[in-house]
Amino acid sequence: MSLQTLVDQATIPPDSGSASSLFDTDSFNEAVMSTYGRFPLALDRGAGCRVWDTQGREYLDFVAGIATCTLGHAHPVMVEAVTRQIQKLHHVSNLYYIPEQGELAKWLVDHSCADRVFFCNSGAEANEAAIKLARKYAHTVLEIDKPIILTANASFHGRTLATITATGQAKYQKYFDPLVPGFHYVNYNDINAVEVAISELDEGDYRVAAILIEPLQGEGGVRPGDVAYFKKLRQICDETGILLIFDEVQVGMGRSGKLWAYEHLGVEPDIFTSAKGLGGGIPIGAMMSKKFCDVFQPGEHASTFGGNPFVCGVALSVCQTLERENILQNVQDRGEQLRSGLKAIAAKYPQQVGEIRGWGLINGLELRADIQLTAADIVNAAIKEGVLLVPAGPKVVRFVPPLIVTEAEVNTALEAVDKAIATLTA
Q: Where do the annotations place N(2)-acetyl-L-ornithine binding (predicted)?
């Protein structure tokens, strides 16, 4: 079955919206905590790369749940997998062997540099697991009393207390101190900063035990890693015994045009994490490692829901579809098309648009720093043109559509962005 056939067969749910069915935002806000700044849309259903709001208005979805809906919405493979697994067995404890978990782990091991997998429910949990594994390795193998993990400024690793500490952005840490000790920040793509930090931090009982870094910074503005920088990181870690950990939560599972983003950089991590696109929208996270640093023993880390039959069965169907339908080729082709179109827009609006950057189908349009126009302005204007986009910081508009997006849909999104900028600058 071809990629286009799968797209065409996406199940379109019945239209449940109408002009009179206004969503009650007041009732929603009374019951739900205000932890999100929401755009004025209530989404009701989806099919392929399109979604509809509660009033029946259609939008082209270039957010994909923020780089999560790998196969888009209501994909027939996922519908079949969800239906099959929920009717068979959806949850049991990890006190027992779970065949679907073993099958998914084997697929991930066979298609990556990893030897072992731990399953959880989100990217933040996967990164927490990586941090714990690195700390245990530091204490038990490297014999470090007070291990330090280097992370990058402008990074993002999650919303738990440890992962916001690992995140090198003060805005995510405000009011949540005291933060977790044992982290130090360096500038991204700056190898001198890493070397200086290791030299200065390795004193007494303190030593750098791991480097946790994104191959491409997503929330930090869609900034790809530099190949020479990452190769030097690998060399430093090999020479010192420091663990190299990659956060592939947003950029992994084919979004970069390769299955794993580390393939762009010519190096392999010792530990890496995945979530978002792994389940195609079903909540799942994974922390993967080489065998030599898999030092966890029973009882040292766990997850009630992690790796249950339901999520693993669905995630495996996503993985197999990526491979079977050669979707990575579509990611590469549509990514090149999208970047080419965005560069044309940048050339058309040089007073507003600066750099275009990204890999595969994670791309950013950066607005000039010397103008008042913000990414949120572009996103709101694009909504009016029928396209959903998402900011990556105050000045970068992020484009992360489902990996099944078509040539025509990319062109539609580009036209909408062109119109949005034209309207805002008129």
A: 159, 303
Is 199 annotated in some ligand binding site? no
304 is in an annotated binding site: yes
Is 156 annotated for ligand binding? yes
Strand partners, 58: 52
Query: pLDDT tens digits, the chain, 426 residues: what are they?
Result: 343 433 344 444 445 444 446 899 999 999 999 999 999 899 999 999 999 999 999 999 999 999 999 999 999 999 999 999 999 999 999 999 999 999 999 999 999 999 999 999 999 999 999 999 999 999 999 999 999 999 999 999 999 999 999 999 999 999 999 999 999 999 999 999 999 999 999 888 889 999 999 999 999 999 999 999 999 999 999 999 999 999 999 999 999 999 999 999 999 999 999 999 999 999 999 999 999 999 999 999 999 999 999 999 999 999 999 999 999 999 999 999 999 999 999 999 999 999 999 999 999 999 999 999 999 999 999 999 999 999 999 999 999 999 999 999 999 999 999 999 999 998
Instruction: Please name the residue that has the structure tokens 């082709």.
Output: 333
Q: What angle do CA 174, 179, 181 make, to 5 degrees?
A: 150
Q: Which domains does the chain have, with CATH numbers?
A: 3-68+326-424 (3.90.1150.10), 79-325 (3.40.640.10)
The one catalytic residue among 44, 61, 247, 270? 247
Task: For residue 249, say whether it is annotated as part of any ligand binding site.
Answer: yes
* 303 has binding-site annotation: yes
Angle subtended at Cα 228 by Cα 222 and Cα 231, rounded to the nearest 5 degrees: 100
Query: Is 115 designated active site?
Result: no
Cα R_g (the chain), whole angstroms: 22
Distance CA 381, CA 136 (A): 48
Q: CB of 164 within 8 A of CB of 179?
A: yes
The answer to whether 173 and 161 are in contact (CB under 8 A) is: no
User: Is 333 labeled as catalytic in the residue annotation?
Assistant: no
From 136, 258, 276, 395, active-site residue? 276
Determine if residue 370 is labeled as part of a ligand binding site. Answer: no
Residue 353 and residue 372 in contact, taking contact as beta carbons nearer than 8 Å: no
CA dist 223 and 340 (Å) reads 17
Q: What is the pTM of this model?
A: 0.93
| Catalytic-labelled residue, pool 119, 156, 272, 399 | 156
Task: Judge whether 136 counts as a catalytic residue.
Answer: no
Chain centroid, CA 364 distance in Å: 14
Tokens of 30: 């009374």
Q: Which two tokens stand for residue 225?
A: 């890693």
